[in-house]
Amino acid sequence: MSFRLRFFMIGAMTLMSEVQGQRRRCSEEISDIRKEISSLGAMQDDLLHALTDLRLGIESAVTVAAGSLPEDCSVAKKRGAWGPFQMIAPPGIGPRMVRCDMLTDGGGWTVALWREPVMKTAGFGERDGPSGDTLHRDSPRVSSYPTRSVKHDLSARPPAEKDPQRPSRNDILPDERHPAGDAGDEETWYRRRRLRRSSQGSSRELLRESFNRTWVEYKDGFGHHTGEYWIGNDVLHALTSASAEPWEALILLNDFRGQNATAAYGQFRVSDEGSGYRLMAAQYDDKRSTAGDGLAFHHRRSFSTYDRDNDEYHGSHCGLDYGAGWWFHQCHVSLLTGAGTSDAQRGTEGPHTLHWRNWKGEEALHSAALLIRPKNQL
Ligand SMILES: *[C@@H]1O[C@H](CO)[C@@H](O)[C@H](O)[C@H]1NC(C)=O
Ligand SMILES: *[C@@H]1O[C@H](CO)[C@@H](O)[C@H](O)[C@H]1NC(C)=O
């Protein structure tokens, strides 16, 4: 063998053993990587388990928190709450914010229905869909709680009515001698607001929630707890039928002239969805009421909306005809979900408006509330 060949063979053998060594190292590394991958998989499983535990933990915490929430405003009051807005958890229903009346007639009332116009302000003019989120929450009328709640909206009397000679605040025109930007007093504020609104071409306008809603919307509730709202038929049923304990109702009404009236019922109950959310409004209390029994006609009637006809007017569909959800019969005497009218339309009349026939005929009312509470809670 020549020296050169021997040298080549040694070289080749060295190379081969090196290649084998590298291959061994490679396969070792591959197996290491495999091990790491499988341990990563185990870690992923652990992570998934941990996440599942966390989720279950959060869910049970929420359940416990909901369990510790008051079922209604009367329970909230017993626990010392006094504010107008409370988070409640009606039996079998998720937590939700509602308005409470903690003052009228002993308080502890859960507000099932709230109707009250909210003044439209600059920047909120683009609203067209009904959404409480666009309502101006700091409206003087709404924020004057608790006084206004005791008197149910006496403050809602339009300024013009106090003195017909004096222009209403909404009519105050820009005063040349006091250009906007001087004193930060109330009149200036109103004047600025008036200016902004007139530049938008939408003066004297008041926002009202639409109550021409579907069956499902009335079932779940709609609107916003700081503005006009319907608490939800499922909530009405859950609250008023949770125990054998009877519930009572108090209806508060205000017209556009600042007059008020009430209707008190010793018994108020709403059945479940399967039986059409039938209304039980009995024991009208003559001594505590001034508005007349506008619910007698609706006692034992099922609920109807424009998309669900449960009324007793064959060949007609009250919910669709009047654009409201209510315990229609043939069709109605009172309609607290009727169309809300704005200040500019004062004096509007008609069976489609928010009205209480026993008190003011078909005259559109300014505001209304339906309050409910367990009867023997005091
Ligand atoms: C209703 O108005 C009368 C005066 O017309 C007033 O004395 C009374 O306090 C008002 N009641 C409520 C609940 O607002
Ligand atoms: C209520 O809404 C429905 C559906 O949008 C509509 O068909 C109906 O005309 C409305 N009713 C009124 C009185 O506005």
From TrEMBL:
Compositional bias of kind Basic and acidic residues: 125-140, 150-180
Keyword Signal recorded: yes
Record's keyword terms, sorted: Signal
One Pfam family, short name: Fibrinogen_C
Residue intervals of the Fibrinogen C-terminal domain: 211-376
Record's GO cellular component terms: extracellular space
Gene3D superfamilies with a match to the protein in the record: Gamma Fibrinogen, chain A, domain 1
Residue span of region Disordered: 122-185
Signal peptide: 1-21
Domain of life: Eukaryota
SMART domains xrefs: FBG (SM00186)
This protein's name: Uncharacterized protein LOC108672372 isoform X1
Organism lineage: Eukaryota, Metazoa, Ecdysozoa, Arthropoda, Crustacea
